[in-house]
Amino acid sequence: MTSRSASRRSGANHRQSRARHLPGIRRSLTLLGITACAVSVSGCAQIVASSVGDAFGKDDFEAARASELPYASLKFLHGNNTALVVLATLEDEGRIARFESQDRGIIELRDGVLSATSGFTRDIADRHEQSTTGRALARPAWLMADDSRYRVSVSALSPYPRRLERADAASSGSQHQDDVPVMQVHEADAHLRCEAAAPHALPLAELSLQHCTETLAWDDGYTTTNEIWRDATRVWAADMTAWPDGPRFGWEIAKAW
Predict the structure, then answer these.
(1) Quick one: which of 252, 229, 227 has its CA closest to 240?
(2) What is the tens place of the pLDDT at every residue in 116-136?
């Protein structure tokens, strides 16, 4: 079974996709044991909050600290709260960058745009884009020309796990209930519109960037919009809603990688 997109109705109204057990969900996030911060763990610990909850319970970003650090970093926004997060790992020649809090809260950017999270109340397991005909894109969607169209697919764990009953052999056939995580897949048609480049303030610099709006027409009829600020080679800032009624995340590059 599949769910084409999230809605504001109760979880009972979601069409659920294939069920998967938790250990197999975030395979792309299992390689985070070794981080760039290992060079100076104590230094990173001073910058990154002790827990995801602490990191996003207040304004914890200071431009001076970001400037002093030898690591790439982001000003990360979740809800009305901000934090300074530091680069943990790079993969695929820098296309995939992961930022990590001290307790392993994870923010993954692919081609400069949020593609996965871990450690938040509602996480993104994976986001990817393809052409309107289902083919791989020749270049990242975020760097395509104005008026480009493509498809977006977002995978996420449902906040309403499936409860299964099974026989408990140790108790002579009595029933035992398990909450089984269920993966939902949300899909949309995307339309990217971009304005002419203009000065845009970042935490440590001001650059000439294009402001682009991504409009997502989800398969269940809902519409959301995301905003990015880019130059010809990378996304420097963004404000995104993962899916209708889903979590909203924003970030600005303090120091690039």
Answers:
(1) 227
(2) 998 888 889 999 999 999 999
Given a contact cutoff of 8 angstroms between Cβ atoms, the answer to whether 148 and 124 are in contact is: no
> Which of 238, 24, 245, 249 lies closest to 111, judged by CA?
238
Buried b (16+ CB within 10 A) or exposed e, 87-126: bbbeeeeeebbbbbbbeebbbbbbbbbbbbbbbbeebbbb
In the structure encoding, which two tokens stand for residue 256, read together?
A: 């690039």
Rounded alpha-carbon distances, angstroms, from residue 135 to 142, 217, 238: 16, 19, 25
Provide the greatest CA pair distance for the chain. 71
Fold of 11-133+154-188+234-255: YmcC-like fold (2.40.360)
**Adjacent-strand bridge partners of 82:** 59, 77
The three-state secondary structure class of 9 is: coil
User: CA 169, CA 234: separation in Å to the nearest integer?
Assistant: 56
Percent of the chain topping pLDDT 90:
47
77 contact partners, CB below 8 Å, separation of at least 6: 239, 249, 250, 251
Cα–Cα distance, 89 to 29 (Å, whole number): 10
Whole-prediction pTM: 0.71
Contact 154, 124 (CB under 8 A): yes
